[in-house]
Amino acid sequence: MKKGTKAITKADAYRFTLSDELRLIAKEELRETQATRDHALQMLREWAEKNPRIVKIRMDANFFLKFLRAKKFQIPVVQENIERYVLLKNAFEGAFKNLDCRLPKMAKLIDQGYMFALPERDREGRRVIFYRPGVFDLREYTNADMLKIHGICYETLMADEENQIRGFIHAGVGTGIGLPYLTLFTIKEAVRIAKNGEKILPMRHREMYGCNINPAMKVAVDFGMSLISQKLRERIRLYTDIKDIELEKRLLPKEYGGEMPMAEMIRLWKLELEAYRGRLLADDEMSVNLGMYSDAAKEGSVGALKEPLNGCTGASDNSTYGLAGSFRKLEVD
User: Fold this and answer.
1) From CA 235, how far away is CA 232, in angstroms rounded?
2) How far is CA 157 from CA 169, 202, 204, 222, 277, in A?
3) pLDDT at residue 181 tops 60
4) Hey, what CATH topology would domain 102-277 get?
5) What is the rounded (10 degree) CA torsion for 251, 207, 16, 99?
6) Once rounded to an integer, what is the mean pLDDT over residues 274-295?
7) 260 DSSP 8-state letter
């Protein structure tokens, strides 16, 4: 393999430096051992170099491991996810590139507390992402702004190895959300975002809590639930009031029954975003040859998600860079 021809980051030698507890969780829940990890990293690097559709890509272990851990080291599925991930970043640059927390609109949404990770982990060591969608002013922000702020926050959190292994908790307060918010995305867009997000985003969604949801939004909530897998639906809990959610209250902002003021939480969160900002912006260098994909694949259509990218223009039946083995339907864990 020619080393570095496509790499925007070095193919580093990985050492597991986390706790023995995390090593055990990784082995029992994600099938990760030194042997499976070393083999998978080698396979992915060779695949990326040989895949003619990939032009530039990160080759560092952290990048590949977040996908491997999210899909329990199922290499064919991980290959597909990585390629779709880079494809969508290239096809929808307005939403998925230039993920800069310093952009005026992004900085304002962050300061308003639209979404942020709570500083303390829960009793099982997982980060909690807290959402306040009601501050998203439809007169000021666009649907691309919404996708971009989620991208900034999720990418920052996914880079952390402990988060990759333990997964995430999501908790949202629906105060201020009403029917006008349904105009943000068309039904087709909403379906594509939900399907692509669940399939491609390398996150382990462990629990999701929602509260204070406007009764007028019930139809929209039911529609949203219908778009995700049964496994994810079973992890969602909806409550009338935040005081009822099954989450340690001390973790929450003081304004919602916790201990630390929200302003301090946001200040700490901004430090995390700044620390990862340079790496995240450098990811824009990753690219694929858009001319080698179908229009449906570039649009992220639901139908295209069911077809392996190896069947795209430019792929031959006997190719060695394609997906090894047959696809198996995977549940997101």
Assistant:
1) 5
2) 12, 11, 11, 28, 12
3) yes
4) Phosphatidylinositol Transfer Protein Sec14p (3.40.525)
5) -80
6) 97
7) B
**The two three-digit tokens of residue 153, written as one number:** 């926050």
Residue 202 confidence (pLDDT) above 90: yes
Which pTM was predicted?
A: 0.90
Q: What pLDDT band is residue 311 in, cutting at 50, 70 and 90?
A: low
Type of residue numbered 92:
F
Residue 6, Cβ neighbours under 10 Å: how many?
A: 19
Distance CA 105, CA 107 (A): 5
DSSP 13: P
The residue ranges of DSSP E strands in the chain, in sequence order, are 54-56, 115-117, 127-131, 168-173, 205-211, 236-239, 287-288
Query: Where do the domains of the chain lie?
Result: 5-95, 102-277
Cα(196)–Cα(255) distance, rounded to whole angstroms?
34
Provide the residue type at 87 as one letter: L
- pLDDT reading at 121 higher than 70: yes
- For residue 89, the one-letter residue type is K
